[in-house]
Design a protein that fits this description.
By secondary structure, the chain is α+β, with helices and mostly antiparallel strands. It is built from 12 helices and 4 strands; from the N terminus they run H-H-E-H-E-E-E-H-H-H-H-H-H-H-H-H. 32% of the residues are buried. About 6% of the residues have low confidence.
Length: 265
């Protein structure tokens, strides 16, 4: 009887699994996944084309190569392929950087100029890289714009749709949980790369207290509870032995900022 009961259980379990799997529309599922990839690739290109046509982009080799030198150790230590990131520097006084679909990362010159040190800058860029790596960008756009609209944009976007997406990415915060996840992922990126994350927290805290700077920064106005986030990072780092190794000398980082400011004029 025990053998018969076991056989019944085995066959019953098999047919139950078969029945449940039969209810899944795999064709539709894979079509959705393909549409997501297609939409992300196309939307990233569409948005960047729009920005490139309407903003002043910095292509200066010395500036681009210096930013690349800063990003490379962060990517290498965290197994992120540097070439997978499409990094752009835009002449804009706002203290901001933002991630876009298809691994685009836009850095405003105002962020570079406002960063007191390389650690502060890399903390912000690591935060945006985390949004990319965790697929937060498409989650945000799907929630606020609508996935069906995004797919339709990929096959032929109009100007108002593009403007809405750009505005959503540049001046609208992610959900609190996604912001914190990106903060902490950036901290982990930095620790693995032997970059001290504390100046990143200090930078956010300083910006949140600088009333004059609020007129020029979306980094704080679109990232609510900046003070609490800075404190959360510092509390997380308490008691940790932090190994820190500079990528650029202080003089080289200062020259980098001056070069960015000069190029913006």
């Amino acid at each position: 009887m025990k053998i018969i009961s076991k056989a019944i259980l085995v066959y019953g379990g098999f047919f139950l699994c078969w029945f449940l799997l039969a209810q899944v529309d795999f064709v539709s599922f894979f079509e959705i996944e393909q549409n997501k990839v297609f939409a992300e690739d196309k939307i990233g290109d569409i948005i960047w084309d729009e920005i490139e046509q309407n903003e002043d982009v910095i292509y200066d080799d010395s500036i681009v190569s210096t930013l690349d030198a800063l990003l490379l150790p962060l990517c290498k230590a965290n197994n992120i392929e540097r070439d997978s990131l499409k990094v752009h520097i835009v002449k804009n006084s706002q203290v901001n950087a933002f991630a876009m679909p298809d691994n685009h990362l836009v850095v405003y010159s105002g962020l570079i100029e406002a960063s007191k040190n390389e650690q502060a800058l890399l903390g912000v860029l690591g935060h945006e890289m985390a949004h990319i790596e965790k697929n937060h960008v498409m989650k945000k756009l799907s929630k606020e714009i609508g996935f069906s609209v995004l797919v339709s944009m990929a096959t032929g976007a109009n100007g108002s749709q593009i403007a809405k997406v750009v505005n959503t990415l540049t001046s609208s915060a992610y959900d609190r949980s996604l912001e914190r996840e990106a903060d902490m992922e950036s901290v982990r990126y930095m620790l693995k790369a032997k970059i001290d994350p504390r100046p990143f927290a200090d930078f956010m805290y300083d910006l949140s207290l600088d009333n004059e700077m609020h007129k020029y920064t979306y980094l704080i106005t679109t990232h609510p509870e900046a003070e609490d986030r800075a404190k959360y990072i510092l509390n997380y780092l308490k008691g940790k032995k932090i190994k820190s190794k500079a990528i650029l000398s202080k003089e080289a980082f200062k020259a980098f900022k001056e070069n960015v400011a000069k190029n913006r004029e």
